[in-house]
Amino acid sequence: METPGSQSSLHRANLERVVRAVRLAGSLTQAEIARTTGLSAATVSNIVRELKDGGTVEVTPTSAGGRRARSVSLSGDAGIVIGVDFGHTHLRVAIGNLAHQVLAEEAEPLDVDASAAQGFDRAEELVSRLIAATGVNRSKVAGVGLGVPGPIDVESGTLGSTAILPGWTGAKPAEELRDRLGVPVHVDNDANLGALGELVWGSGKGVRDLAYIKVASGVGAGLVIDGKIYRGPGGTAGEIGHITLDESGPVCRCGNRGCLETFAAARYVLPLLQPSHGPDLTMEGVVRLARDGDPGCRRVIADVGRHIGSGVANLCNLLNPSRVVLGGDLAEAGELVLGPIRESVGRYAIPSAARQLSVLPGALGGRAEVLGALALALSEMGDSTLLDGTLPVAAPAFT
Question: 154-167, pLDDT tens digit by residue?
Fold first, then answer.
């Protein structure tokens, strides 16, 4: 029996610190583990040897700063996590192991506005299909990260705005998917997961403070402060799309006038171009035409960039992030949209905040949210389950 402060409990705590550091980073050298955990190099070496002998971690030769080193990652068969991302027009699922390797990934069209039950049926089917394709035993599933395109009420777990997803009124996404799959499910909105995905795998890697701006059918921001997602007490932090730009502007779906969303989101922008470009135009098509030199599409994208830049300037003045990452289809426009964003930031942000800010396109494209869901599942699982071999066993329906 371990007692607080005893040598055995201290050793156990150190084991968990090392496993957590490796789990969150994907892989670290032993020197990086020592810096991250504050443990001595000798202690880290002994712990890594013990974890390797127990099959919890794998150690491979690498180099760091031109010198030989050993890279430590969690064992590929230590467990798996699942990422599920509901977009307004798609469902995407990914399976990954605890070494941050994606084992399988698939997306399919889905009208998420129609029905929550239909969406969860499709998600359950796709998860089951990918699990079967990887050949991984279902007892290895450590948890699921779930992304939805709307704010989540922290206390109740329900979607916080029925105006955004009317077909999901009263739905508790994490609870619903947990009952179907029989494993822990952690839910967040798509912008937060996009931020987490870019932070772990993409354009935000190595940064402690950033804002991920997603422009699609709506406009949202995922905020990372000191390396952690900031959600706010009610889970609605980052609703940058509802910053007021014009009190006499168009009526937004939230009920206010002149929100940033009414000047930047696809549902408001596309009608500006459809009379000249046809009713089937999409934001992806607008970006493609703009890159090919279409003057109307270029003008609209530049205007959207300037409006987004106004919202980003407000973020700079309040939170002073070091990096802004633009996601969604609009990011594919590159400098056609990033230039106007920087222009507005330079005009409206405090000069010192603007100087410190870099504005970059997302590196993960449409995969940012589902990879963020994997990262969420990885961050929420307990380290004791890895050390004790007590991963949850999925329900019989999860086949």
Answer: 778 887 665 566 77
Look at residues 252, 253, 131, 224 and name the one whose alpha carbon lies nearest to residue 181: 131
String of DSSP letters for 316-376: HHHH--SEEEEESGGGGGTHHHHHHHHHHHHHHS-HHHHHH-EEEE-SSGGGHHHHHHHHH
pLDDT score of 265: 92
Instruction: Say which DSSP state 20 is in.
Output: H
Phi, psi of 62 (to 5 degrees): -155, -170
Three-state SS at 190: helix
The C-alpha atoms of residue 107 and residue 370 are separated, in whole angstroms, by: 10
Check: CB of residue 157 under 8 Å from CB of residue 175.
Answer: yes
Give all strands of the β-sheet with 57-64 in edge-to-edge order. 27-29, 67-74, 57-64
- Inter-CA distances, 19 with 6, 49, 150, 208, 379, Å: 20, 12, 33, 21, 12
Judged against a pLDDT cut of 70, whether residue 61 lies above it is answered with: yes
Cα–Cα distance, 213 to 222 (Å, whole number): 7
| Gap between the Cα atoms of 305 and 291, Å rounded | 15
Q: What is the pTM of this model?
A: 0.85
Q: What angle do CA 23, 106, 125 make, to 5 degrees?
A: 100
Please state, in angstroms and as integers, the Cα–Cα distance from residue 360 to each residue in 31, 182, 348, 353, 369, following that order. 30, 39, 19, 16, 17
Q: What is the pLDDT of residues 124-140, one digit of tens each?
A: 999 999 999 998 888 88
Per-residue pLDDT for 393 more than 60? no
Task: Copy the structure tokens of residue 284.
Answer: 């992806």
What Å distances lie between residue 289 and 205, 285, 302, CA to CA?
Answer: 31, 6, 13
Most distant CA pair in the chain, distance: 75
- Please, what is the average pLDDT of the chain? 88
Looking at residue 100, its amino acid is H
Q: Which residues contact 356 (CB under 8 A, 6 or more apart)?
A: 320, 322
Which residue(s) pair with 80 in the sheet? 97, 141
CB burial readout 144-159, b (16+ within 10 A) else e: bbbbbbbbbeeeeebb
Question: 177-229: per-residue pLDDT in tens?
Answer: 999 999 999 999 899 999 999 998 899 988 989 999 999 888 999 999 998 89
